[in-house]
Amino acid sequence: MIRVLGLPKGQVFLVPWTEQWEIEFKEEEKKIRFEINESIWAIHHIGSTAIKGLSAKPIIDIAIEIKSFEEGIRCVPGLEKIGYSYKGTDVLPDRYYFNKGEPRTHQIHMYQTESEYLYKQLTLRDYLRTNENARKKYQELTEKLTKEHSMNKFAYADSKTDFINKIILEAERGRQ
């Protein structure tokens, strides 16, 4: 089987969507549940690999929802046991952050239930899954930004922020 995961440090590139990403997520979810199930409220496949038909950086993004933020520190040993590297709570806001592999194949964002950042992740994912026009615009933007920032993941991510915030607002308006 051809490996469809792995983003070398500092690089940004996209690969076409593949069903293998769904399989990889489900396999990883089983491993995570085996190690830390008592702490988990829910596990979500997030990011572009979770959106059928969308090209993405070849990294499986996983959101783990926990009941209380303090619970996250108790999950570290179990996640390290299955190959994750704990990066702390100050890498990205309001979460515990872990990554796996070199090149990186998986990332975990661990949020307390009802975190605004988790809400935004799920809102964006769900809207792009159901809105073909928004998904096409996002695809075009990420392709353009990949060319502009192929060696700077921070610039790539920052350049998407305004568009992502607009999509989230559009999704919220559609719920009303």
Write the layout of secondary structure elements.
Elements: H1 20-36, E1 40-46, E2 60-66, H2 76-81, E3 84-88, E4 96-100, E5 106-112, H3 116-130, H4 132-148, H5 153-175
Parallel strand pairs: 2-5
Antiparallel strand pairs: 1-2, 3-4, 4-5
- Major sheet characteristics: 5 strands, mixed
Strand order of the largest sheet: 1-2-5-4-3
Our estimate of the beta-strand percent is: 15-25%
Mean pLDDT: 93
- The assigned structural class equals alpha+beta
User: Got a strand count?
Assistant: 5
Low-confidence stretches: none
Gross morphology is: globular
Count of runs of 4 or more consecutive helical residues: 5
> Cα distance, first to last residue?
45 Å
Q: State the helical fraction.
A: 40-55%
- CA radius of gyration: 16 Å
Order of helices and strands: HEEHEEEHHH
Architecture overview:
It is built from 5 helices and 5 strands. By secondary structure, the chain is α+β, with helices and mostly antiparallel strands. Strands 1-2-5-4-3 form a 5-stranded mixed sheet, with helices on both faces. α4 packs antiparallel against α5. The longest helix is centred in the last third of the chain and has 23 residues, at 153-175. The radius of gyration is 16 Å and the shape is globular. The relative contact order is 0.16. The model has no long low-confidence stretch (mean pLDDT 93).
Distinctive features:
18% strand; single chain; alpha+beta; 5 strands; 176 residues; 5-stranded mixed β-sheet; 5 helices
